[in-house]
Amino acid sequence: MVDWRLYEPLINFARKRSMWIVAFCTGCGGIEMPPLMTSRYDLERFGMMPNPAPRMADLFLITGYVTPKTLKRIIITYEMQPDPKYVLAHGSCPLNGGIYWDAYNAIKHLDKYIPVDVAIAGCMPRPEAVMDGIKKIMDLIETGKADGWKRYKENYEYYKKNQDELFGEGWREKTARRWIPWLMGREKKREEE
Amino acid sequence: MAEEVKASWSKGEEIVRMLLEKAPYAEGTVRRERRLEFKVPADRIVDFLRTAKANGFELLLQITAVDWLKEGEIELVYQLFSISHGTHAMVKTRLPRDEARISTVMDIYPVAETYERDAHEFFKVTFEGNPKLEMPWILEDEDREVGVSHRKDFDMLGYVKRKYKLLDRFDEDKENYVI
Amino acid sequence: MVTQEELIREARENGMELLPLEKDTYELFFGPQHMATENYSLILKMDGHRVVKAIANPGFLHRGFEKLAEYRPWHTNIALLLRICVPEPDVPEAIYSMAVDELMGWEVPERAQWIRTTVLEMARVSAYLFWMMGLSFKLGVYTAGQWAAAYRERFMALFEELTGARVYHIYTIPGGVRRDIPGDKWLRQLRDTVEYIKDKLKDFDNLVFENYITYRRLEGIGVMDKKFALNEGVTGPNLRATGVPYDVRRADPYLLYPELDFEVPVLKEGDALARALVRRFEFEQDLYILEQLLDMGPPSGPYKVDHPSLKALPRFRVPAGDAFAHVEATKGDFGAYVVSDGGNKPYRVQIRGPSIAHGIRVIEQLLVGARLADVPVILMSLDNCPPDIDR
C-alpha cells in the first residue's frame, strides 16, 4: 500500500504546471483572452491552454460579470470538471458587482454560489494582472491552499441553498427542458397540455 | 446661413410631402438634414409603414418604446432608414399605458419580430399577430414572473436588494448618488 | 451490439431520462460554453449532421443597460454604455456623445472631430484585426490568427497612450473628447503602425484570403439575397456583400467623413466568402482613411466645447427632446436613441446594435440545412457580437 500523501508535493508541482482552461467567455473579460493566449503575452509557456471541453479542464476563468442566466451554465460546467478544479474570478464584477452594483441582472457576490480561489480586481484587468493572478493560483496550488473544490464538497448545502434561493427549486430540469416545446412546434405543445 | 440650412432641408421636405399625400392621417416634420419625424395614430401604423416601405424606406433599424409615466402613455418609435433617399425617419405613435396593444408589422418588415419581442419583454407592449411573443427572450422565466421590466414604475433598487440579499446601504431617495 | 431500446431502458432504470424529439432528430445545445459562440447559445434540432431547425437563445450578457442608464448622470453613462460593444467600445461612446451633442445643440470643435474620427477608425481597424483572428482560428489557419492578435496589440498600445486604458477607453464625451492627443510622437507612431500593417496585409492575403482552403470552406454557405437582407434589417458588411452599397459614412455622413476619400466595397454573392472579402477590402480602406487623416493633421483649436456646464458635470443638464445618432461599426449600423426630459439623467437610452438583426432571425434562417461544421463559420462570417443583442 503506497501512501500517496508522500507524493503530494510532486503531484501539486505537476498540477501547477499543466493547467487547462475551460473556454467559456462569461463576460467582457473574454476580449483579453486572445491577447493572453497569443504571441504578446503567451500564456502557453506556463503550460496553460484553452480547452473546449470542461471534462478535461482544471482552471475556470470567470471573465467578467456574471448574469443569473450564465451562472446556471457556470455551475453546471463547474460541476462537470473533474477534481481538482480551480476558479479564478476576473475583474471587479464577480467580487461585488463592480459597475453593475445596482443592475437587476448581474450577480453581486460570486463566491456565494461557487467557491472562488483567486480574484483579480480591476475593470478591465490588464493581461499582466491576469498573469499575476495565475502566478498566485500556481503558488496556492503548490502549497495546497487552493482548496475551493474541497470547500464546495464540504459546504455543498450552503452553496445549493444560495443557488436555489436565486433560481428557484428544480432549475436544472427546468432549464434543460425549456426549449423543447419550441423546437417541436406549437402543435405538440398543445397536445401535452 | 439660414437659407443654406433651408436648402439642405428641401429634400426632406419633399419626402415628407410625398408621404403625407399618400397618408393624410399622419403628421410629418423635418427635424434637420436627413432626419424626419412622423406622428401616426396607433391604428394606422401598419398602413403608414406599408406606404413608407413602398416609397423607399427599406430598413427598419429599431422599435423603441419610451414609457411616459406622467401622461400615462407608451410611445413607440419606429426607426426607419431609407437607403435610396439617405434619410432617417422616426415614426412615433402613442399607446395607453394600461392596455398597450398594437398590431404587428412583421409582414412588412420581418425583422420587426425580433424588436417586438424585445419591446414586449421590457415594456409589456402586446403586438397582435406576432407568434413569438411568448417565446423565451432575454429574461429568465423567474424574472418574467416577478415582473422585471424597463417601465418607469419598476423599482429596480428594491428588486436588486431583495433578489441578491444585499445590505440596505443604498439610499433610494437620494437624487444624485455617488458611485 | 446494444440496441437503442436497451439503451433507453437502461437509462430509465438508472434514473436518467432521455428526451427524444422525433424519430431521427435530436436536440443539440450549441453554446454558451463553446469556443465559437462567445456566450451566446443556439438550440439546434439536428438530423445527423444537418441542422433542421435553429433557435437563437440570447440574453447571457444582459445587464439591463437601458434601465441602468436612467439611474446615472449624463457623463457617467459614458463609462457604462461603452461596455455594450466589447471589441470596439469607442462606437457606443461616439453615438451617445453625438446624440447628446445634438440635444445640446453643440457644434463640436474641429480638433475634437478629427480626434473622434481617428479613434473610430482605429477602433474599426483593431476590430477587423480581432475578427481576422477569429476567422483564422475557426478556419484552422493558426499562424494568421497569431499575427492578427499581435498587430492588434500595436493598436492597443496606441489607445493606451491616447486614453489611458487598453480596452475600455472612456474617451469620447459629449462636447468633444476627454483629453488632447499626447503629441507629435503619438502621431508618428500611429503612422508607423498603419504603414507596418499595410505592409503585412500581403501576408494575410497569401495565408487567408487567397487560400484555396478558405475558398472551399466559405464558398456557398449561408447565402443571403438582397431582398432577404433588406427585409431582415441586415446592415454593414453583411449587407454590402449582397450588393447594397449602404454605408452610414456615405449615406448619413457624420464627423469628418464627407471630406475623406474612400470606397465602399460591394460584392454580389452574399455568401460567407463574400462577407469575408468585403471585410478584407474595408480593412484596406480603413488603413487608407487613417493615412488621409494623418496627412490632414489635427487642426489646431480646443479639443472640447467651452461650455460652463462641462465644468460642473454632476449638475450637467440636457434640454428636453430626443435625438438619434448612428455610425458605421465593423458589424453594421450602430445607433443610439436618447430621450431627455430636461433632467440630469437621461429619460431613456436605447442602443441599436447591428447584431440584434444578424444574430436572431438571420442566423435562424441561414442555419437551416447547414452542416454542423459550418455553424461556427457562418456565425463568424456574420460577425455576430452577443453583447449587442443582450445589452
Task: Summarize the structure in words.
The complex is a heterotrimer of chains A (193), B (179) and C (391). Chain A has 193 residues and is mainly α. Chain A contains ten helices and five strands. Chain A has helices spanning 8-16, 33-37, 68-80, 93-96, 127-143, 148-154, 156-167, 171-177, 180-184, 186-192; strands spanning 20-22, 49-51, 59-63, 86-90, 118-120. The model of chain A has no long low-confidence stretch (mean pLDDT 83). By secondary structure, chain B is α/β, with parallel strands linked by helices. Chain B has two domains: 2-138, Beta Polymerase, domain 2; 140-179, no CATH class. Helix content of chain B is 32%, strand content 26%. In chain B, 38% of the residues are buried. Chain C has 15 helices and eight strands. Chain C has 391 residues and is an alpha+beta fold. In chain C, a hairpin with a 2-residue loop joins β4 (172-173) and β5 (176-177). Chains in contact: A-B, A-C, B-C. The B-C interface holds B 32, 34-35, 58-62, 64, 66-67, 77, 79, 81, 83, 86-88, 90, 109-111, 113-115, 118, 122, 136-140, 150, 154, 156, 176, 179 and C 57-59, 62, 64, 66-67, 71-73, 76, 102, 230-233, 235, 244, 246, 251-252, 314, 322, 324, 326, 333, 335, 337, 339, 344, 347-348, 350, 352, 356-357, 360-361, 390.
